[in-house]
Amino acid sequence: MTHDHIPTTHAGSLPRTPELIAANAARTFADDGFTLERTSEFDGLLTGAVIDLVQRQKDLGITIPGDGEYGKAMSNAVDYGAWWTYSFQRTAGLELTEFNPITAGPLRSEPGNVRLTSFADRRDWTRFAAAYSDPESGIHLGRNATSFPTATGPISYTGHAALASDIDNLKSGLEAADLPTGFITALSPGSASRIGNDYYGSEEEFIYAWADVLREEYRAIVEAGLVVQIDDPSIAENWDQINPEPSVEDYLRFTQIRVEALNYALRGLPEEQIRFHVCWGSWHGPHTTDIEFSAIVDLVLGINAGAYSFEAANARHEHEWTIWRDRQLPEGKVLIPGVVSHATNVVEHPELVAQRIERFAGLVGRENVIAGTDCGLGGRIHPDIAAAKLESLGAGAQLAGRRLFAGVSSTS
After folding, report:
1. Is 287 left (phi over 0), alpha (psi -120 to 50) or beta?
2. What pLDDT does residue 54 have?
3. Cα–Cα 20 to 30 A to 404, which of 115, 118, 133, 174?
């Protein structure tokens, strides 16, 4: 489908309202200690918040909105994990144990045997340990709404009611705002499997078990006529969670299993309703040990999605737009480069946004670019700053569109 403008979207998470954060904080836990109970009052608040959010996105110039991940519990203003921890609420076979993937002890890899260490043992986190442990450094890791469980039995999907609520809320918002479509995020098997496992006999078996679980979400979202965005930072940021640094060849082999499991979960689903989001971790740290995008871009393009969302606006990854000079974007695929970033409080000028868009349009074609954000803005920057960034995104896309589509009439 052709058009005469640059569509705009974002990476999923948007700042929750104070009322929604307070309502999540007030929810009680089920007997398992990590599943948050729902009430009719909470569900009503959530529905109204999503409907209002979709209209606000439209008003700011976003043409492909999401539900802001509002159905994924965030009980604190700063929370970098809601995109992941929501999955615990929707999966049977998990329980709290002594294991925590964030604070567990170090685990060392060796050539030919790549293993993930704990989050606390990341190479960037250990190199800048003084900064990460200094509450005045500006590096905030936030607080998650729930604890991290471990798989102690066969896992299965139990989130049908919660997902139906997410779908209904977004569709209600789209109808009220008179917008044709939107997207809902869902976790990837590779990212989901980074919790404890006391049941499955191998890492690969555990990843594929998650693929069967999460396929339930992917299928329901596309069958509802919406776009599903697969969130999988692990494809890139696992690199920093391997200590010592592995060879690129070992890392690609390690990651290929996760790509294959995701494609297994996506089998038979329409690619035009699937987009894939990869990032290097949204915490505001130095990120000096991020793997280069050029090393993993072929793996990313091997995922059966119609569009690919990635970081392209922050100081660590903006230079990597040049990799598209040497790679042919597969026919029918679309890029969603981040043109505003979650990693700075500075609001990007619309002209800079337009220039970033035009770089990609010049390399892969103006019809193959959707302007997005590096990562989610919710839980990472102040709501007022997030709104200003989305407004700048919309304005910059309009600038770029006028220049790129001069003299073109819309057929969509």
Report:
1. left
2. 98
3. 174
